[in-house]
Design brief:
This protein has about 350 residues and is α/β, with parallel strands linked by helices. It contains 16 helices and 12 strands. The chain starts with a helix and ends with a helix.
């Protein structure tokens, strides 16, 4: 018998993300304030454009991550399988949702397993920092092994937990746990936010742990404070609605991390190839999307989304006269006023 409470919460999250309006209301990612100069004489062929990259030593056909979303419920398994197969077929990276459910009920492990359809993908495991502080490195190594992960995301989500009914309230020990796992875990550790972005101070703290990789998951896309506000009641619901737009936008978060010499997965509100190009210019090594993949999979259009992203990136690279990622980053670019304000701290 599955852990009913966890499985219900996971199913609730999927339903809310598919059926309800849970985007930031006033705050944006600020990726829209990255303006490329148009090149009318690109002097290149679309066939020359190379989107490939390397992350944590793994070659990828394009700088695209299907970010961790789900696992731990009957609804999660087909989503993970379908999207992992897209990652396999197109050379993207793929992440699973929080594996906390496996700690509570090992029988849920099969909802995360995708190696049968995605034997070659760069696969990211996922566990909360609070849970990482509570378990041993050996126990976390089992979570790596059970899905055959290439890296482990340690996610930070105090905003979500504080609004979530029965969520975590004690976040002590997380910094030490990250430092321990960076030193002891057999795979790279990626410190990942969950929709509220990473501030300069948080990034300084992460860097001191020895971690070299972060996933920004900035403000401006899906608000997980908002998702939990949909599920909460009373005071927690009121606070969730009050803090609906809480967080550091994606664009400045990427720059803050890059200035600290961290490898960066840019995510949080990335919705298309134009957002990805802006994130890459700002310093993202990979670009992660979550909700657009969930919606596409629910409509049977995940392959179409992958093709649209790749064709969009190639088109933008051509229109800026860039044959690869390195060349794109050397182009001139203009930043809007609001983004410049966030960067000037």
């Amino acid at each position: 018998m599955y852990d009913i409470e966890i499985s219900k919460r996971k199913s609730d999250h999927i339903r809310i993300c598919l059926d309800e309006e849970i985007e930031y209301k006033a705050k944006t990612t600020l990726l829209e304030e990255v303006h490329f100069f148009h090149d009318s004489l690109p002097e290149l062929s679309m066939n020359e454009i190379d989107l490939s990259t390397t992350f944590c030593g793994h070659h990828l056909a394009a700088p695209v991550l299907i970010s961790g979303m789900t696992g731990g419920s009957k609804d999660a398994k087909p989503i993970n399988k379908a999207l992992a197969k897209v990652a396999q077929d197109f050379g993207f990276a793929f992440g699973v949702g929080s594996q906390r459910a496996i700690l509570k009920d090992p029988k849920l492990a099969h909802t995360y397993k995708v190696r049968d359809v995605a034997p070659d993908v760069f696969l990211l495991g996922n566990i909360g920092a609070v849970q990482a502080a509570e378990i041993s490195t050996d126990e976390l190594e089992e979570l790596v092994d059970v899905i055959d992960a290439n890296a482990m995301c340690i996610h930070l989500n105090p905003g979500q937990e504080l609004i979530q009914p029965h969520g975590d309230r004690d976040f002590r020990g997380c910094v030490g746990a990250i430092a321990r796992l960076v030193e002891e875990l057999s795979v790279p550790v990626i410190v990942k936010e969950t929709g509220c972005g990473l501030s300069p101070e948080t990034l300084d703290r992460i860097r001191r742990t020895g971690a070299k990789h972060v996933e920004i998951s900035g403000a401006g896309g899906t608000t997980w404070i908002g998702v939990e506000a949909k599920r909460a009641q009373g005071v927690q619901k009121q606070i969730g609605n009050l803090l609906w737009d809480w967080g550091v936008p994606t664009a400045p978060s990427i720059q803050y991390a890059k200035k600290r010499d961290l490898s960066v997965i840019g995510s949080g509100g990335i919705r298309n190839a134009k957002d990805m190009a802006a994130a890459i210019y700002l310093g993202a090594d990979l670009c992660g999307m979550a909700r657009p993949w969930l919606v596409a999979q629910s409509e049977g259009k995940e392959v179409e989304l992958a093709e649209e992203i790749l064709e969009g990136l190639r088109t933008i690279f051509c229109l800026t006269g860039s044959t690869n990622i390195e060349e794109l980053r050397l182009k001139r670019c203009m930043f809007g006023r609001n983004l410049r304000v966030w960067l000037d701290v």
